[in-house]
Amino acid sequence: MASSLTTFTDEARIALDTLSGRAAGLFSPSLRLGVTGLSRAGKTVFISALVHNLIHGGRLPLFEAQKSGRIARAFLEEQPDDAVPRFQYEDHVAALVDDRVWPDSTRAISELRLTIEYESASGWNRLFSAGKLSVDIVDYPGEWLLDLPLLGKSFADFSREAVELAALPVRSDLSQAWRELASAIDPDADADEMMARRLAESFAAYLKACKLDERALSTLPPGRFLMPGDLEGSPALTFAPLMRLSERRRSGSLQAMMERRYEAYKTHVVKPFFREHITCLDRQIVLIDAMQALNAGPAAMADLERAVTEILSCFRPGRGNFVTDLLSRRIDRILVAATKADQLHHESHDRLQAIVRRLADRAVARANFSGADVDVVAMAAVRSTREGTVKQGRETLPVIIGMPLKGEKIDGETFDGKTETAIFPGDLPEKVDAVFELPGPQPEDNEPAIRFVRFRPPKLERTAEGVTLSLPHIRLDRALQFLIGDRLA
Q1: How far apart are CA 23 and CA 19, in angstroms?
Q2: pTM of the entire structure?
Q3: For 79-82, which contacts have Cβ atoms below 8 Å and span 24 or more sequence positions?
Q4: Residue 256 above 80 pLDDT?
Q5: pLDDT tens digits for 460-485?
């Protein structure tokens, strides 16, 4: 898929940009780490926790360079890309630590440079290396990544696939208003700006409804319809798929207008994002909120698998040699991480990881993805709960203890955001396929076997000297070891 997203001219520009970047890195080694995920998967929290733990010497026993004491220090430096907004690390950490609220989610692309000074484990490397690595962390919305397949699709392809998805049982009620409006449209009618606006707004409302917790769907292109940024209201976002297309579109028709704006969206929004950012990555982590999808049911899990497949198909995987690496960056390691593992007791972590492994393996196979190491992990970049047990009759149940966010509900109880409570979230099924299989008819009062709620960030302890300890986590160290550990060997 990725090879079909660029022209010869694009590849020439990518080669020049890569060569320039490699030349600058000869005396200052760097690694570009992409961080993406669909909304509320925890991208902002992951980056903040990663940086906070490295700067403050957090407990990272599975991160070999830290465990062996070879990291001298880690610190923030000025980022190399002046045209990209800086990731506001300080503001996000203040929200987590001081206010105990989750920071605002990713709305656009941002970047942060973290430099690590270390001692190589190899005596040979110590002779020829300065023991310094700059990690350029690039944060971008997964919704934008899901737009990249559009580069290889015509407006007719886009319309057909959008109509097919909208008719699925899990989407049909949410898309009904748009489908009714679109079905009454004559594509050969004269172009009408107000009609185009009505169609675009109706289609965007349907996509936004799909994102809500009750459905938790993931495959929702065009991504800028959900996160328009500075493009809100522009003609490039004022289009929508059509249900009935004319084989011979008339110049000046509504269909011609929609097709022209769709192509403009690809040319001026999607392609520059791919060329300027995705083709410049060395490593990638894809964060997924499997908990939200599990809450919503098998249809949401199937849609999440579809989204991960689309995402993987857009990367440029592979390992090059000295010559090819000068002209083209390839992603050689990708980590698919299920976030918010702290919403489960550790006894279910292996099952969560097995679910993500099954999802990732199928997505890799469907995307014909090869050339890069792909791993999975169940993690929590910031751990907001602790574990315990409660007695219920003769049973002892494993529970998680924390402060649910205000408005969260479980068993008819609505939490106020100030009270700590113990919750038994239920057990994930032993058979992985069960979470992807649509159930048979259920009684109306049937309660889900598992139910997850979101918690406030933890209250951090302070040392006797008043120093705040690093943010607690689950397997952040394992993620770090896979993503950058080899570069610090």
Answers
A1: 6
A2: 0.88
A3: 79/111, 79/112, 79/113, 79/136, 80/24, 80/30, 80/113, 80/136, 81/111, 81/136
A4: yes
A5: 877 665 556 789 999 999 999 999 99
